[in-house]
Design brief:
This protein is mostly helical and about 150 residues long. It contains 6 helices and no strands. The N and C termini lie far apart (about 50 Å).
Length: about 150
């Protein structure tokens, strides 16, 4: 029998432990998530940004992943380094003018793009259920990384 190696990447491994722990702690502290859930959210946020760096589809985070994305963006030096290393440029946060809910099709396409990029995706975090938890939900939703 031949063992198959698991080639799936994680946001956690890419971010490094110090940044990852800080992101998860931020999500616990500011959004009241459990440590386990906050770690999964942080993982997906990093994977989302790394996928957005080279994606050929519009990238829109789910409500849950947006919590981690905002935590990452607030770690400005680390975020800028990740962007430069993986995208060759800074990926700007791109809130949707005038508000509105996230487009479920774009959120689903983002999760599929992450899977195609080789990242582990926690499907239960990729939902749009009408209850928005992110700080800027009233103006988020435009594809990420566009100017």
């Amino acid at each position: 029998m031949t063992a198959m190696a698991n080639d799936q990447k994680t946001g956690r491994a890419t971010a490094g432990e110090e940044l990852f722990e800080s992101l998860a702690h931020f999500v616990v502290t500011h959004h009241g998530q459990s440590t386990e859930r906050a770690e999964r959210i942080a993982d997906q946020a990093v994977a989302f940004v790394l996928t957005a760096a080279t994606a050929t589809v519009p990238m829109v985070p789910s409500d849950d992943v947006d919590l981690g994305l905002h935590a990452l963006i607030l770690h400005t030096k680390e975020y800028a380094r990740l962007c430069e290393k993986h995208a060759g440029r800074f990926l700007h946060h791109n809130p949707k003018p005038g508000g509105g809910a996230r487009d479920p099709e774009l959120v689903a396409a983002s999760a599929r793009a992450m899977k195609a990029a080789g990242f582990v995706v926690f499907d239960d975090l990729w939902t749009v259920n009408g209850e928005n938890l992110a700080q800027c939900d009233s103006d988020c939703g435009r594809p990420y990384g566009q100017a």
